[in-house]
Amino acid sequence: MEQPEHRAEGAGPFTTRLTWHHPEGGTVVWESRPARKRGALSIRGPGGTVAMSPTADAETLDRLRRLNSVASGAFFLGGMLFALGAGVAQFGSGDPVESAAIYCAGGLFFTLGGYASLLQVLNAPCQSQGGGPLATVAWRWWGYEPMRLDWLSTFVLFAGTLVFGVNLLDSFLQGLSVQQTNRLIWTPDVVGCVLFLVSGHLAFAEICHRSWPCIRSRSLGWWVVAVNQFGSVLFMVSALAAFTRPATQSLVNSDIANWGTLCGALCFALGGVLQAFERP
How far, in Å, CA of 224 to CA of 114, rounded? Predict the structure, then answer.
């Protein structure tokens, strides 16, 4: 029996799309994001019709739905709490402990969302030879797969949420000098923002199958990544504006810091809502 020809695409050393051309006609396409999010392959019949076909078993599809629900819900709640914390900081009583407590609660949900996203990658169905049904993998709570672009993207995202956790916990400290504030609170904030931006860039590379971003306005996954990446940019703007100047012992611009956090958090909340529909 003649084997189907296949073509691999991706960004750098990472393979994010495999295409099989069957001798009898028709094409089967495996893409890493639709496979792990929807448990589906893209199938083009001999007549040119295209469809996303779920080819994982029912148990795996249910697993993907549950993980996606946890991740999307966590990012929505985390984003809304961060937006509330920024609103309290901008319009509330001015008590830093109050807004810090709200931020900390939001950070817990962001960390949960980051870990659930990593679990989606670790427990996603794998491609099989010749474009056949997706192969189910055993459940894993952790794994090290640096040669998978989706693993790198979600791992960097999860690491970013953990670094933000350091920033959020340190924000409860009182009586810090300017140097201590910048080192213990501002620096982890900036590092977390950088990790979020790197994660978003890797997610774009996974969707676009190349090292630079593209525009795919008809792809729900692209919109999820784009909205979250815009939120990450706003978080970075907020972090830069939150630097405490030693000469004046005041923030560079507290309004930009608060509004950047608020709008960036709303982007992640919206991304969570969109992600809820990116399921099997």
Answer: 14
Q: Which DSSP helix (H) or strand (E) runs through 50?
A: strand 50-54
Task: Write down the residue that tokens 């407590």 correspond to.
Answer: 101
Q: Whole-prediction pTM value?
A: 0.89
> How many whole angstroms separate alpha carbon 157 and alpha carbon 208?
19
The H-or-E segment that residue 166 falls in is: helix 149-170
Enumerate the β-bridge partners of residue 30. Answer: 18
Kindly give, in sequence order, each residue whose CB lies less than 8 Å from that of residue 183, ignoring residues fewer than 6 positions away.
none
Backbone dihedral region for residue 175 (phi beyond 0: left; psi -120 to 50: alpha; all else: beta)? left
Query: 214-264 pLDDT, tens per residue?
Result: 898 889 999 999 999 999 999 999 999 999 999 888 889 989 999 999 999
C-alpha 95: how far from chain center: 31
Cβ proximity of 268 and 75 under 8 Å: yes
Pair of tokens at residue 195:
């990790």
